[in-house]
């Protein structure tokens, strides 16, 4: 079940759901707006031009109030908000329609597991033929929350728990290999 603004406000007030910083106007009828942070990350160029999933990828981290996202460019960004989900709640990261209409794709992996804590790393891609100026504090997307029928047996305690700022892929830490 999607959680309403009434319940979101109640859970925020009780501390069951934690989001900081947050302003009242971010709370929408069935979601909470998330804002763009001031940290961006781009994959460092490597000499062979191949990203290998088994090796750690290096990122160039940039802190700035404005970032110019060029046509066809991919960048990681972070939210201003630090969140902590209870073990009986999940969230979906959704882009804003107004931004999507400009050709800015907000994420590839938009699921936040129960028990997650940290800032949300966003995957941004400019599909437009023009550059897009990204500004710190701009509403960039929204979190839609859903209640689980019971507490998760194994809430999130993974490799991105507690992340702050842009966090690059940690897929190289995966120990399972499918064949």
UniProtKB/TrEMBL annotation:
<keyword id="KW-0547">Nucleotide-binding</keyword>
<comment type="pathway">
    <text>Pyrimidine metabolism; dUMP biosynthesis; dUMP from dCTP: step 1/1.</text>
</comment>
<dbReference type="GO" id="GO:0006226">
    <property type="term" value="P:dUMP biosynthetic process"/>
</dbReference>
<comment type="subunit">
    <text>Homotrimer.</text>
</comment>
<dbReference type="GO" id="GO:0015949">
    <property type="term" value="P:nucleobase-containing small molecule interconversion"/>
</dbReference>
<feature type="binding site">
    <location>
        <position position="142"/>
    </location>
    <ligand>
        <name>dCTP</name>
    </ligand>
</feature>
<dbReference type="GO" id="GO:0033973">
    <property type="term" value="F:dCTP deaminase (dUMP-forming) activity"/>
</dbReference>
<feature type="binding site">
    <location>
        <position position="113"/>
    </location>
    <ligand>
        <name>dCTP</name>
    </ligand>
</feature>
<keyword id="KW-0546">Nucleotide metabolism</keyword>
<feature type="active site" description="Proton donor/acceptor">
    <location>
        <position position="123"/>
    </location>
</feature>
<dbReference type="GO" id="GO:0008829">
    <property type="term" value="F:dCTP deaminase activity"/>
</dbReference>
<dbReference type="InterPro" id="IPR011962">
    <property type="entry name" value="dCTP_deaminase"/>
</dbReference>
<dbReference type="Pfam" id="PF22769">
    <property type="entry name" value="DCD"/>
</dbReference>
<feature type="binding site">
    <location>
        <position position="159"/>
    </location>
    <ligand>
        <name>dCTP</name>
    </ligand>
</feature>
<feature type="site" description="Important for bifunctional activity">
    <location>
        <begin position="110"/>
        <end position="111"/>
    </location>
</feature>
<dbReference type="GO" id="GO:0000166">
    <property type="term" value="F:nucleotide binding"/>
</dbReference>
<feature type="binding site">
    <location>
        <begin position="96"/>
        <end position="101"/>
    </location>
    <ligand>
        <name>dCTP</name>
    </ligand>
</feature>
<comment type="similarity">
    <text>Belongs to the dCTP deaminase family.</text>
</comment>
<keyword id="KW-0378">Hydrolase</keyword>
<feature type="binding site">
    <location>
        <position position="163"/>
    </location>
    <ligand>
        <name>dCTP</name>
    </ligand>
</feature>
<dbReference type="InterPro" id="IPR033704">
    <property type="entry name" value="dUTPase_trimeric"/>
</dbReference>
<comment type="function">
    <text>Bifunctional enzyme that catalyzes both the deamination of dCTP to dUTP and the hydrolysis of dUTP to dUMP without releasing the toxic dUTP intermediate.</text>
</comment>
<dbReference type="InterPro" id="IPR036157">
    <property type="entry name" value="dUTPase-like_sf"/>
</dbReference>
<dbReference type="GO" id="GO:0006229">
    <property type="term" value="P:dUTP biosynthetic process"/>
</dbReference>
<feature type="binding site">
    <location>
        <position position="156"/>
    </location>
    <ligand>
        <name>dCTP</name>
    </ligand>
</feature>
<protein>
    <recommendedName>
        <fullName>dCTP deaminase, dUMP-forming</fullName>
        <ecNumber>3.5.4.30</ecNumber>
    </recommendedName>
</protein>
<feature type="binding site">
    <location>
        <begin position="121"/>
        <end position="123"/>
    </location>
    <ligand>
        <name>dCTP</name>
    </ligand>
</feature>
